[in-house]
Design a protein that fits this description.
heterodimer, A: mainly alpha, 5 helices, about 70% helix, B: mainly alpha
Chain lengths: ~160, ~450
């Protein structure tokens, strides 16, 4: 639990840097286009990799903040006991899906690594980079969901 | 099983999982995966993650986190308060000017920040106390801000519109421009209502009421309010010029806008230390990751829907009904309104686009025009119970206004939005004139 927390904090810091870096790269390509006739080839894709990385790697941290929104309409009708059971079942099903997605990401990563997949653009960066972000991010998310399901504490706002 | 039975099952299963309270992103992914297991060849399951990656790895979609960063940087700075007070000192001589200043502040701020909740909290936290101090009823003040905040998804750079442009394969630049006319229409409706409501309240107010109190600002005070606001207005126009002058693509304007916004708050508000930037970055990551996962899983969801021919069959079925154009439009909008009660605009667009856009196109509707209409209709969902995101933002910044008052205060604005939809159906030029004119001059 504490290890996950530390890992998540490091990821949030890296994500913040990645967001600013992606903004800089896109700004750079605007400036470059203004001053030179050279085509911009790697900037868009570089930013895509950064932003895919941010999205998947920070998913676990966002879950720890209960940031993935759902429709909570039934919560008010059910008794506290039924609600606890409902939340546990939801967490288990979410974890099941995320585990499946993580597993398929790892096999995709393996394939991309051994077959040497590259992106179909002029710059042609290897695709294992974003796939690694997806695999690691979804694995972390699965772990986070399971850990939280067993240590469910009420959030400050009562959720 | 026939396609229709599978389709019905898909729909029912989705509703069931979503209403269980499972986070929207995981619900969509789970439903899609379960149907892949049962109805699609095993090989499809092996490429599920590749599908998600390929659908998501478009720089247009991935510009969304950067637009959110720009919005968070401006939204968390005192810019909203400054913008608000500047408009207030300039407009206070107009009857009902305080309410109108709030509407204008919301519209301008929404265009800079691009987010409805951010607009509500930035303008509302200054505007609501001020309006109540001047004797405006709490419910009215809350409704005005909640409704004004929704302009964020109609004015560029609207995240909702980015998704619509991707889902409908329409030009994002044109769609952005098409939102401006209708946004001005809504601004004038809201302002007219604010003025009418003010005169109504003033007629019934007793002499000596704070509502009638006169307040004057000198010219010096008026001009003193400008310097902190102008840079943000320049940012807004600068980004638009970069986009429509052909210097930058929409996704590049996201990066450019984020960098400029960070520089502006560093220079004007001295916000540059890591500790000060932390809340901005944390909010950005939380909101954008939540949104991007919903988007990724919605894309998987609609991929499965179209692989199983559900979307195509339903779309063909709707076309075969040979409904008159307006009945078709009304039926579709009604569905969007109902979905808007529960779902955020991003998932509504991605889940329904493959079903509703082909029939609308066949009926001869312009898809850019429809994008604007659909956005306004989804705005209603943002301020309408039970989910009404903006209502809860207002509840947070003004906890002492009873929820019932907020909801009743919002209702007139829901009616005004519906009226705007009708006006846009009768006069589509309000939306379409600006994109046509700009595209013509660019040629």
């Amino acid at each position: 639990m504490r290890l996950l927390g530390l890992l998540n904090r490091a990821i949030v810091l890296l994500s913040a840097i990645a967001l600013v870096l992606a903004s800089c790269v896109l700004t750079y390509s605007v400036v470059l286009r203004y001053f030179t006739p050279e085509p911009t080839d790697w900037q868009d894709e570089f930013s895509v990799f950064l932003l895919i990385g941010v999205t998947f790697l920070s998913a676990a941290w966002v879950h720890s903040q209960r940031g993935h929104i759902g429709i909570e309409a039934v919560a008010s009708i059910l008794s506290p006991r039924t609600n606890r059971i409902r939340l546990f079942v939801i967490d288990m099903l979410s974890a099941l899906f995320c585990a499946f997605f993580a597993w398929k990401s790892w096999t995709l990563l393996h394939e991309a690594w051994t077959e040497g997949y590259v992106s179909a653009t002029a710059w042609a960066p290897p695709l294992w980079i974003p796939y690694l972000a997806m695999s690691a991010g979804m694995t972390l998310l699965t772990a986070q969901i399971v850990v939280q399901a067993f240590h469910r504490r009420p959030m400050p706002d009562g959720r | 099983m026939s396609v229709f039975e599978i389709g019905a099952l898909y729909g029912v299963f989705t509703l069931l999982v979503m209403f269980s309270g499972m986070p929207i992103a995981f619900s969509l992914g789970l439903v899609a995966t379960v149907f892949m297991v049962f109805f699609m060849p095993p090989a499809a399951l092996d490429t599920v993650t590749q599908n998600v990656y390929e659908e998501m790895s478009s720089i247009t979609l991935l510009s969304i986190p950067l637009f959110i960063l720009k919005g968070a940087a401006i939204g968390r700075s005192p810019a909203g308060r400054d913008l608000y007070s500047a408009l207030h000192v300039w407009m206070n001589r107009i009857p009902g000017g305080l309410g109108i200043a709030n509407v204008f502040a919301c519209a301008l701020f929404a265009a800079m920040a691009g987010s409805s909740p951010a607009t509500c909290s930035a303008i509302g936290s200054a505007g609501i106390p001020e309006m109540r101090k001047r004797g405006y009823p709490g419910g009215f003040a809350a409704g005005l801000i909640a409704a004004g905040g929704t302009l964020g998804i109609l004015l560029p750079p609207s995240i909702t519109m980015i998704l619509y442009a991707v889902a409908s394969e329409q030009s994002l630049g044109r769609l952005f421009l098409a939102g401006i006319g209708p946004a001005l229409l809504l601004v004038s409706f809201f302002s007219a209502y604010a003025a009418w409501r003010y005169s109504h309240e003033a007629r019934h107010a007793q002499t000596g009421s704070v509502l009638l109190a006169d307040e004057r600002f000198t010219l010096r005070q008026r001009f003193a309010a400008l310097p902190r606001v102008l840079p943000f207005v320049l940012l807004l126009t600068g980004v638009m010029v970069a986009l429509y002058g052909g210097f930058a693509t929409p996704s590049e304007t996201a990066g450019l806008g984020a960098i400029l916004a960070l520089i502006l708050i560093a220079v004007i508000y001295n916000t540059w230390r890591p500790r000060q930037l932390e809340p901005i970055m944390i909010n950005t990551i939380r909101e954008s990751t939540m949104l991007m996962l919903i988007i990724g899983m919605s894309l998987l969801y609609s991929y499965v829907m179209s692989y199983l021919h559900i979307s195509q069959s339903v779309a063909t079925w709707i076309v075969a009904q040979e409904l008159s154009r307006w009945v078709l439009l009304a039926a579709i909008l009604l569905m969007v309104v109902m979905l808007g009660f529960f779902l955020p605009p991003v998932s509504i667009i991605l889940m329904t686009a493959p079903i509703i856009l082909p029939p609308l196109k066949a009926a001869g509707f312009d898809l850019i025009w429809f994008g604007v209409i659909m956005t306004i209709v989804m705005e209603m969902g943002l301020i309408h119970p039970p989910v009404g995101l903006n209502i809860f933002v207002i509840k947070n910044i003004a906890p002492d206004i009873p929820l019932g008052d907020v909801i009743w205060g919002v209702m007139p604005f829901v009616v005004l939005m519906a009226l705007a939809v009708v006006v846009l159906c009768l006069l589509p030029e309000i939306a379409m004139w600006l994109p046509e004119a700009v595209i013509k001059t660019m040629r």
